[in-house]
Amino acid sequence: MRKKLAAGMGGLIVLFCLAGAVFMTAYKTRALRFVSQMGPGINLGNTLDATGLREYKPDADELEYETYWGNPKADAETFLAIKKAGFGTVRIPVTWEDHLDVSYQISDVWMDRVQEVVDMALAADLYVIIDLHHEEWLDLKTERAQEIRGEFAVVWEQIAARFRDYDETLLFEAVNEPRLRGGEVEWTSGTEELRAMVNDLNAVFVETVRASGGGNRTRYLLISPYAGNCGTEAMQGLVIPDDGRLIVSVHMYTPYSFCQKEDGEKVWDNAGTREQVEQAFFEMYRLFVERHVPVILTEFGCVDKGNTQERLAWTGYYMEQARRYGISCIWWDCGGYALLDRENKTWWFPEIVEVLTNEQM
Question: Are strands 221-223 and 295-300 parallel, antiparallel or unpaired?
């Protein structure tokens, strides 16, 4: 009799384990579906992320930061133009450091403006991502790890509290390109110690946001590997916290000379570049998407050098690989990368916009 009971209990345990595994797989798959619904995206670069104004103008008003790097203030028409063009998502980079006091409390004036811009984007029926962007206080100096950990939590507690009652169309991204600035490893895959520090901050971010309750219990959150690097070593070093609503954020500007150097190469198409780009997308798929963790390329793009046809071909190749491996993409839009004429709400390069937004291409 005891043997029969034991066998029966064993069968039940197996069934419960199988049911749990099926539930978790379905739970994680929901994240993939959610990201696919977000559609193609664009960044509102060099706007709320501008820094350094008070170094040159000590008495500057806080709200002057928004236009300091040469862009007009964001308005409702900006986001309506983005939506009308076929984009589903806007990433709004935000730098907070010039708006923090000595105890890392965020200025009400700045928080109110960030909320106002977020509200305008949401009203245009866009998904919205906000982050911590050019934060020099988040320089990954391991000797300050515990201090940074605490400061980081304080800042995210405030942001999470302000947006606590927003629904899941608003997403949070822990920190843009977390790295040790100025050294030889800044734009690499980092070191084991630095990758561990990034993982710790990601865990603090998830725990802090979830603990704030409300809509933050189920909000989708983005975390990055060291420096947002899409190299295999950096991505392999990323530890995903046990949470079914996380998204991996990476950046890729390959090849560098074509994408980022204004006086660099005007052509990109060679076997080496194609192989490098395809390999990076495959690694995103293998390490994350295949395990039901979605990936968003939250920054990519190439500067204008009077080479529109080459840019079109490059963008088309990226989008082809992204769709092949189930990766969503968000164009970095400002300066030489700009597609949107923000003053007139028209598009400088509608051909590139069409490639980005046409999911059938």
Answer: unpaired
Q: Give the separation between CA 143 and CA 206, rounded to whole angstroms.
A: 23
pLDDT digits (tens, 9 = 90+) for 52-90: 999 999 999 999 999 999 999 999 999 999 999 999 999
Q: Is 182 left (phi over 0), alpha (psi -120 to 50) or beta?
A: left
Q: What is the pTM of this model?
A: 0.92
Amino acid at 203: A
pLDDT of residue 164: 98
CA distance 83 to 64: 26
CA separation for the pair 274, 268 (Å, rounded): 9
The end-to-end CA distance of the chain, in Å, is 65
Distance CA 238, CA 242 (A): 13
Distance separating alpha carbons of residues 49 and 97, to the nearest angstrom = 10
Give the rounded percent of residues in the chain with a pLDDT score beyond 90.
91
Helices and strands, number each (H, E), in the chain: 12, 10
Strands (DSSP E) found in the chain: 41-43, 89-92, 127-131, 170-173, 221-223, 246-251, 295-300, 328-331, 340-341, 346-347
Q: Phi and psi for 42 in degrees, rounded to 5?
A: -145, 145
Q: Which stretches of the chain drop beneath a pLDDT of 70? A: 1-28, 360-361
Residue 128 phi/psi, 5-degree rounding, is -130, 135
Strand partners, 221: 172, 246
- In the numeric block, the tokens 């509200």 are attached to 119
CB 27 within 8 A of CB 244: yes
d(CA 240, CA 218): 16
Are the CB atoms for 40 and 328 separated by under 8 Å?
yes
User: How many alpha carbons lie under 13 Å from residue 170 in its C-beta half-sphere?
Assistant: 23
Return the active site residues: 177, 299
